[in-house]
Amino acid sequence: MFNQLPASSVQDRASDALYKWRGIAGWPEADATVSGVTWTPDAEMGGGFGNYQVSFSYPSSKGLQGGVLGINGDVNAPPYAKGDVFTLRYHPKRPSRYYYANELSRTERLVLILSALALGAVGAFVMVSLFP
Q1: Which of 11, 21, 37, 41 is most open to solvent, judged by the fewest CB atoms within 10 Å of its CB?
Q2: How far, in Å, CA of 96 to CA of 2, rounded?
């Protein structure tokens, strides 16, 4: 799961650099088992979009650990179901800390980038308006 293609965008390269800098590539892998999935609709977005809270547990060097992931998505496309298994990495000295590679689709990346650009443009407009 963690063998990925080389990064092609600035965002991907920054994420890869952070991954290497924190030493996550050296953390042990574990198979996490989903124990529950809870859907929360997004009141502002509407249209069936919202957040899934995925509860899971995984074995570590210091016993069974648990965690929760928040994954945005569509009401009709849950990322996992109860009993599904996915791979994550956990910190060897603090097994309760984990890393999950939540890969974004091209559309999600584009929306994130456009949102950041729009926010920056609004911020620049406000600064120019306040300090002529």
Answers
A1: 21
A2: 20
- Report helix, strand or coil for 2: coil
**More confident position, 109 or 112:** 112
Please state, in angstroms and rounded to a whole number, the distance separating the CA atoms of residues 84 and 59: 15
**Token output for 44:** 């502002």
CA–CA distance, 68 with 71 (Å, rounded to integer): 10
CB atoms within 10 A of CB 30: 19
Locate the domains of the chain by residue range.
26-101, 103-132
3-state SS class at 32: strand
pTM, two decimal places: 0.63
Query: Within 13 Å, how many C-alpha atoms sit on residue 18's CB side?
Result: 8
pLDDT at 31: 93
Report the DSSP beta bridge partners of residue 16.
Answer: none
pLDDT for 14 equals 66
Query: Quick one: which of 75, 77, 88 has its CA closest to 31?
Result: 88
Binning pLDDT at 50, 70 and 90, where does residue 3 land? very low
